[in-house]
Automatic annotation (TrEMBL), chain A:
Annotated protein name in UniProt: Myotubularin-related protein 12
Lineage: Eukaryota, Metazoa, Chordata, Craniata, Vertebrata
InterPro entries: MTMR12-like_C (IPR022587), MTMR12_PTP (IPR030576), Myotubularin (IPR030564), Myotubularin-like_Pase_dom (IPR010569), PH-like_dom_sf (IPR011993), Prot-tyrosine_phosphatase-like (IPR029021)
PROSITE patterns to which the protein is assigned, alphabetical: PPASE_MYOTUBULARIN
Pfam families: 3-PAP (PF12578), Myotub-related (PF06602)
Stretch forming the signal peptide: none
UniProt keyword terms in alphabetical order: Cytoplasm, Sarcoplasmic reticulum
One Gene Ontology biological process: phosphatidylinositol dephosphorylation
Homology family: Belongs to the protein-tyrosine phosphatase family. Non-receptor class myotubularin subfamily.
Domain Myotubularin phosphatase: 175-613
Gene name per UniProt: Mtmr12
Species of the source: Piaya cayana
UniProtKB/TrEMBL annotation, chain B:
Compartment(s) where it occurs, according to its Swiss-Prot or TrEMBL record: Cell membrane; Cell projection, Filopodium; Cell projection, Ruffle; Cytoplasm, Myofibril, Sarcomere
GO cellular component: filopodium; late endosome; plasma membrane; ruffle; sarcomere
PROSITE patterns: PPASE_MYOTUBULARIN (PS51339), TYR_PHOSPHATASE_1 (PS00383), TYR_PHOSPHATASE_2 (PS50056)
SUPFAM superfamilies: (Phosphotyrosine protein) phosphatases II, PH domain-like
Full protein name: Myotubularin
Example of a GO biological process term: phosphatidylinositol dephosphorylation
Residue stretches making up the Tyrosine specific protein phosphatases domain: 344-406
Residues that hold substrate according to the record: N313, I314, C375, S376, D377, G378, W379, D380, R381
Region (Disordered): 1-40, 581-603
GO MF assignments: phosphatidylinositol-3,5-bisphosphate 3-phosphatase activity; phosphatidylinositol-3-phosphate phosphatase activity; phosphoprotein phosphatase activity
Reaction(s) catalysed by this chain's protein: 1,2-dihexadecanoyl-sn-glycero-3-phospho-(1D-myo-inositol-3,5-bisphosphate) + H2O = 1,2-dihexadecanoyl-sn-glycero-3-phospho-(1D-myo-inositol-5-phosphate) + phosphate; a 1,2-diacyl-sn-glycero-3-phospho-(1D-myo-inositol-3-phosphate) + H2O = a 1,2-diacyl-sn-glycero-3-phospho-(1D-myo-inositol) + phosphate; 1,2-dioctanoyl-sn-glycero-3-phospho-(1-D-myo-inositol-3-phosphate) + H2O = 1,2-dioctanoyl-sn-glycero-3-phospho-(1D-myo-inositol) + phosphate; 1,2-dioctanoyl-sn-glycero-3-phospho-(1D-myo-inositol-3,5-bisphosphate) + H2O = 1,2-dioctanoyl-sn-glycero-3-phospho-(1D-myo-inositol-5-phosphate) + phosphate
Length: 719, 603
């Protein structure tokens, strides 16, 4: 019944653009791709291919190429879906949608691919040869949805075909050497109380810990070795007043009483050593009991993202009617709020109470990473620069041992391990970015493409569970491959994905750069180790001590032994409004974009990251509107200022024009759509989008609804 | 440095708890303290009270009452708490507690305001101390109920601009290219003889005689006949407004009305049908037949297409705003913010109004068909729809002056019953005629300006200022229900226009991102994904929610503008110096690249 008004397919040989190491696995021609829009079935014919890297649709008449988008990913094109980016695949049989997972008995007429970056592709296979349909559908399902071995990741084919010779370090501190940690300790002035240890060289302590990490000076090697690094406070960051943020992986619950006793004694011992000054104050927070579980987070996100994977216009407007309650029922925004709130609580301890904070979690590699990263972004303006933020991700997540492979379920090994923890961090950071635009060197577009990069398996950054796993797989010793050792790319080398013009969109033109120290001083310090001067040194007033470290030990031990306590940070020995007071008093003062930054967390302030979640939905598009409209004005003006500057330099006849940031050049900026810089080839129609279903029901106000505005009997006038 | 500026407070009526003010001599501060006073404003009384601030707790202070405002200043100076509330904002004054009430601060006054807040004052129980203040407040807050005039008639402010000159109907119609060979200006309503709620000057089809108009008037509720609001410069399709036809239960027809609508349809030279948008829900339109109203049936108007826009009545809107206030004042609903917001339906109503206006605009623009808009009487929902559609289609209305004209024309002159809807100076706070229809319109405008941040010449402050003076009674602009009444009260002679205030300090209300674009239709997306609660208006009293002021993005832009202008100036200087060929003459000026980094750090 569907009428397809499109020219006959043009027989033309189009070949996929293949990366080094990429091989074509299967293909099908005369596939019809719908431009998901208005149910008019408009679209284009082309070839659908599947490689060991991606699924790609190759447009038969790629005439639209003369309109080169201003923001283009060099690795993943508009019609490319990396195998790891595929979220769900549905087949349509007689108008019915069915999830495709493993072996198929029947082959569908239509294929709907939902992507993890929220794109939705609709392919019609009705005009494709049956043989090709079989091959392409089972190929796509097999390669994107079934379990695979780590070594079969495209990462390895790519690395062996295109060895990375670039230095790749580009200002980002990788935290894989002793020196990187020493520099970080020095930068934060944590070196008085903390030391880097190399105890884990050769991974003799634990395969989960990085080779090098930082512990309190008094912790001995012996102690570290005893429980494979468990029960040892590991340093994350030191605050300007000397208070430190620490994390610790908890002991597993022991049934055996004597083992539990030994562990208790061990912890007692550790804390007795530490409780000598200057380590006196410590607060503990068991994140696994004070924050939602990974399972909750996964469930919430699964529901949340579903709201943005829109099939068609009708779907869009149908969900619009109850949009707010739908959003709320996912619980995703509430989780963001709780995580931000927790981070503020930790900040309050560090900043105002001058108290060390110890975050505890089963493995200390999930919510610990989220909270410690957020705390650093809020307190340390260095983490709000691009390189500082990237170094932070390296420190807390990559070196910190976040199981990217399992949490993203890249290998489809176990759905149970999947949880969007890193995405949760990016969502929280986005709240800060949109609340304080001048405080960040990067843009929301940066965060969006970073989230997309989670699914691009040419970078090692997000494709290992730990440093150990990466090291063992890099050396090639475990396999008989001749190609090892591999040299992987890092995602932080943005030039791999974007040319300089596009990279400019990652830099925030509003960023309020920090006043630079004197030129003479600048030369002495290497930039990546630049000392952090932004945090004002508050006077060390006598701290209002509520509990010394020793008294806290019992709490800790009970906690670790399984008797979980509620929100330890807000425990009873503290006035309940101390958090609120801190929060309110900070918000009543003017913002210093280089100082402490606290997010607003009241209901109306927590928003949906519109750019990431709405960018592919044509109905949500604002022509000539959205935040890009003002951003474009600023960029245009900056360009003008720059050209004036060049002119002035010429007048001065001094050829040096300073270290000028490159500014994105926008063509016809007045007509940019709010989807910019994504989905540029979406519809350009000027017809307004009109709701197709609206709410009318006001059941609880029936009597009001029926009334007229003003009751006057008009019939009387006429008689 | 520049970025970390102190918050700016609305001079008009914001509660300020900043410690900005310097401490005056501790003794006799009452005498020294300058209480703001407008020319013509007279002091009535003052009294020591405790202001029960919902955010900072009880605040000792002295309250001053004039014939225009209630002003409170705290005794304590850290922080200084100041309340500056025009009496017109007051909706209800209640006594709380009795002379025998126990409990601390339980005896006093509870004042409900029209601008989303409540004020509570506790007084000493001895000697009926609140009686005087209650009476004075009641008298001056509700002058209409006490045979007193509005403050607007006593106001002696002077402004450099005369806001009454902003709107001249004749020149506005001329701007639209009217009259032309198909549309004429009629003075039939010069003395409000045809319709006492319409303006005196109307634009009607050239082919309809004044006699025809009179006959049509008999068939339209309150004689509000279809007249032209706006004409599309290219398609010549028009937006007409009117009230419902008097169809009644028996399904009456009126040949003159039917013919008149046909004349309208033909006037733009298109053969398409005339589109009628009835703003009401279908069921309400049907129900209206029982009281003599109704809608245009297909039988009687075969050349017209009728659509219902499902916008609810004034009572539903009033309840919705009441619910909204419950979730934002004094505390913002914490745990279930989104579902609470949804349950107020406020944004759903906004969505429906915008959706209706988009349909009207799109029909006229791309559908090239003339439209007729009405609801029951054509002064509430109709005004919302026509003015919003005009705002979408005509970029002139997106300028400061244009917007003033739009409000003046579609709302004030066409008889939106401001006096009844707001209840200016009237003590009957529970009056069923009150409804936030105009607020809803301004909210829709704000939603549009939020979606298109470069399309409007005015900023958010402009809209907030309009809303503040919607209630304040400081200006004559929004007083009374119709032009005929305003003429009778000699409003333009005896009072000042709000536009005088605004146009005299326009720079305060300018959106720096404004980009002039002619003839571009602006369609907002009426989706909940984009609509948001106007926090800076509805939750502005809550210090926790207060937004960064000034907006950092705006500030950065202003800095760049200043930098550009500075460069242009310096470049000119340099060119002059260089052309005179004196080497090293400008040795003192820093290199421009140094300057850029300097200015960036400033931000």
């Amino acid at each position: 019944p569907q009428e397809v008004h499109i020219k006959e397919p043009i027989e033309k040989e189009v070949n996929p653009h293949l990366l080094p190491g990429e091989t074509l696995l299967c293909e099908a021609s005369t596939v019809y791709k719908y431009i998901q829009e208005d149910g008019s079935n408009r679209g284009t014919y082309g070839k659908l291919v599947c490689t060991n890297f991606k699924i790609a649709f190759l447009d038969d008449d790629s005439a639209s190429d003369d309109n080169e988008p201003q923001f283009k990913n060099k690795i993943v094109g508009e019609n490319d879906i990396t195998l790891q980016c595929v979220d769900q695949i549905y087949g349509v049989y007689d108008e019915k949608k069915k999830l495709l997972t493993g072996q198929l008995r029947k082959y569908p007429e239509k294929l709907i691919i939902y992507c993890k970056d929220l794109r939705v592709f609709n392919f019609c296979l009705r005009y494709t040869k049956e043989e090709e349909v079989k091959r392409i559908v089972s190929g796509i399902v097999h390669h994107s949805q079934t379990p695979k071995l780590l070594k079969r990741l495209f990462l390895f084919s790519y690395a062996s075909a295109a060895p990375n010779n670039a230095d790749g370090r580009n200002q980002t501190v990788m935290f894989d050497t002793l020196e990187d940690w020493r520099d970080e300790l020095e930068r934060t002035r944590g070196n008085v109380k903390y030391k880097v240890v190399a105890t884990n060289e050769g991974y003799r302590v634990s395969e989960k810990l990085p080779l090098y990490f930082v512990v309190p000076i008094c912790v001995s090697e012996e102690n570290i070795l005893k429980y494979e690094g468990r029960g040892i406070p590991i340093w994350c960051w030191s605050c300007h007043n000397g208070a430190a943020l620490l994390k610790m992986s908890a002991f597993p619950k022991e049934q055996d009483d004597s083992t539990a006793q030994t562990q208790k004694a061990f912890l007692d011992g550790i804390y007795k050593t530490i409780s000598k000054p200057p380590y006196e104050l410590l607060k503990m927070d068991d994140l696994s009991s004070s924050l939602p579980s990974l399972q909750d987070i996964q469930t919430a996100y699964t529901r949340f993202k579903q709201l943005f994977l829109i099939d068609n216009s009708t779907d869009f407007w149908a969900t619009d009617v109850k949009w707010f309650s739908l959003l709320e029922s996912t619980n995703w925004l509430e989780i963001i709020r709780r995580v931000l709130k927790k981070a503020i609580e930790v900040v309050e301890c560090l900043e105002r109470q001058h108290t060390n904070v110890l975050l505890i979690e089963e493995s200390a590699t999930d919510l610990c990473c989220v909270i410690s990263s957020l705390v650093q972004v809020m307190m340390d303006s260095h983490s709000r620069t691009k390189s500082g933020f990237q170094s932070l991700i390296q420190k807390e997540w990559v070196a910190g041992g976040h199981c990217f492979l399992d949490r993203c379920n890249h290998l489809h090994k176990s759905d149970k391990e999947e949880a969007p923890i890193f995405l949760l961090l990016l969502n929280c950071i986005w709240q800060l970015v949109q609340q304080y635009p001048p405080a960040f060197e990067f843009t929301e577009t940066y965060l969006t493409v970073l989230s997309d990069s989670l699914y691009v398996p040419i970078f090692s950054t997000f494709f290992f569970n730990s440093q150990h796993q990466k090291d063992t797989n890099t050396s090639g010793e475990s396999l008989k491959t001749q190609s090892g050792p591999f040299r992987f790319l890092t995602v932080w080398d943005w030039s791999v994905q974007f040319d300089p013009k596009a990279q400019a969109f990652l830099n925030n033109p509003l960023y309020a750069e920090k006043p630079k120290p004197d030129k003479s001083q600048r030369k002495t310090a290497r930039f990546k180790h630049q000392r952090q001067l932004s945090l004002p040194l508050t006077q060390t007033k006598p701290s209002t001590k509520r509990g010394f470290f020793r008294e806290e030990t019992d709490h800790l031990i009970k906690n670790i032994l399984g008797k979980r306590f509620g929100k330890l940070i807000n425990s009873s020995d503290e006035p309940p409004n101390s958090f609120r007071e801190f929060y309110d008093s900070w918000h009543s003062k003017p913002v210093d974009y280089h100082g402490l930054l606290l997010p607003h967390i009241d209901g109306p302030e927590i928003k949906v990251w519109a750019q990431r979640y709405l960018r592919w939905i044509p109905e949500a598009q604002l022509h000539g509107g959205g935040t890009i409209a003002t951003a474009a004005k600023i960029l245009d003006l900056m360009e003008e200022v720059q050209s004036l500057q060049v002119k002035m330099d010429e007048e001065h006849s001094q050829a040096i024009s300073g270290n000028v940031h490159s500014i994105p050049v926008l063509r016809n900026s007045a007509r940019l759509s709010s989807l910019f810089p994504f989905a540029l080839l979406q519809r350009q129609s000027i017809k307004p989008a009109l709701p197709t279903s609206t709410w009318k029901d006001l059941e609880d106000e029936d009597d009001l609804v029926k009334r007229d505005d003003e009751f006057v009997d008009l019939s009387g006038d006429l008689s | 440095m520049a970025s970390s500026s102190t918050p700016i407070y609305n001079s008009n009526s914001l509660e300020s708890s900043s410690g900005k003010r310097t401490l005056k001599d501790g003794t006799n501060w009452e005498q020294h303290e300058e209480i703001p006073r407008l020319p013509g404003e007279t002091r009535v009384t003052d009294k020591d009270v405790i202001y029960m601030c919902p955010f900072n707790g009880p605040v000792k202070g002295r309250v001053y009452i004039t014939n225009y405002r209630l002003y409170l200043r705290s005794v304590e100076n850290d922080p200084v708490v100041v309340l500056n509330v025009p009496l017109g904002v007051i909706s209800k004054i209640e006594k709380m507690g009795g002379a025998s009430s126990r409990g601390e601060n339980s005896y006093g006054l509870d004042i409900t305001c029209k601008d989303m807040r409540n004020l509570r004052f506790a007084l000493k129980q001895e000697g009926h101390s609140r009686r005087d203040i209650f009476e004075v407040l009641t008298k001056y807050a509700f002058p209409q109920s006490h045979n007193l005039g509005f403050f607007a008639f006593a106001n002696e402010e002077k402004f450099s601009e005369n806001g009454w000159m902003v709107y001249n109907p004749m020149s506005e119609y001329r701007r639209q290219g009217l009259p032309n060979e198909r549309w004429r200006v009629t003075f039939i309503n010069e003395h409000y003889g045809l319709c006492d709620t319409y303006p005196s000057l109307l634009v009607v089809p050239y082919n309809a005689t004044d006699d025809d108009l009179k006959k049509v008037a008999a068939f339209r509720s309150r004689n509000r006949i279809p007249v032209l609001s706006w004409i599309h410069p290219e398609t010549q399709a028009v937006i007409m407004r009117c009230s419902q036809p008097l169809v009644g239960m028996s399904g009456k027809r009126n040949k003159d009305d039917e013919r008149y609508l046909d004349i309208i349809r033909e006037a733009n030279g298109q053969i398409s049908k005339l589109t009628i948008y009835d703003a009401r829900p279908n069921v309400n339109a049907v129900a209206n037949k029982a009281t003599g109203g109704g809608y245009e049936s297909e039988d009687a108007y075969p050349n017209a297409e009728l659509f219902f826009l499902d916008i609810h009545n004034i009572h539903v809107m009033r309840e919705s705003l009441k619910k909204l206030k419950d979730i934002v004042y004094p505390n913002v609903e914490e745990s279930h913010w989104l579902s609470s917001l949804e349950s107020t339906h406020w944004l759903e109503h906004i969505k429906l109004v915008l959706t209706g206006a988009i349909q009207v605009a799109d029909k006229v623009s791309s559908g090239r068909s003339s439209v007729l808009v009405h609801c029951s009487d054509g002064w509430d929902r109709t005004a919302q729809l026509t003015s919003l559609a005009m705002l979408m289609l005509d970029s002139y209305y997106r300028t400061i002056e244009g917007f003033e004209v739009l409000v003046q024309k579609e709302w004030i002159s066409f008889g939106h019953k401001f006096a009844s809807r707001i209840g200016h100076g009237d003590k009957n706070h529970a009056d069923a005629d009150r409804s936030p229809i105009f607020l809803q319109f301004i909210d829709c405008v704000w939603q549009m300006s939020k979606q298109f941040p470069t399309a409007f010449e005015f900023n958010e402050q402009f809209l907030i200022t309009i809303l503040d003076h919607l209630y304040s009674c400081r200006f004559g602009t929004f007083l009374y229900n119709s032009e005929s009444l305003r003429e009778k009260e000699k409003v333009t002679e005896k009072t000042l226009s709000l536009w005088s205030l605004i146009n005299s300090e326009k720079s305060k209300y300018i959106n720096p991102f404004y980009t002039k674009e002619l003839n571009r239709a602006l369609y907002p997306v009426a989706s909940m994904r984009h609509l948001e609660l106007w926090v800076n208006y509805y939750i502005r009293w809550n210090p926790r929610i207060r937004q960064q002021q000034p907006n950092p993005v705006e500030q950065r832009y202003m800095e760049l503008l200043a930098l550009r202008d500075d460069y242009i100036r310096r470049l000119e200087e340099l060119q002059i110096t260089n052309s005179s060929r004196i080497p090293n003459s400008s040795a003192s000026s820093a290199s421009p690249s140094q300057m850029v980094s300097h200015l960036q750090t400033h931000f």
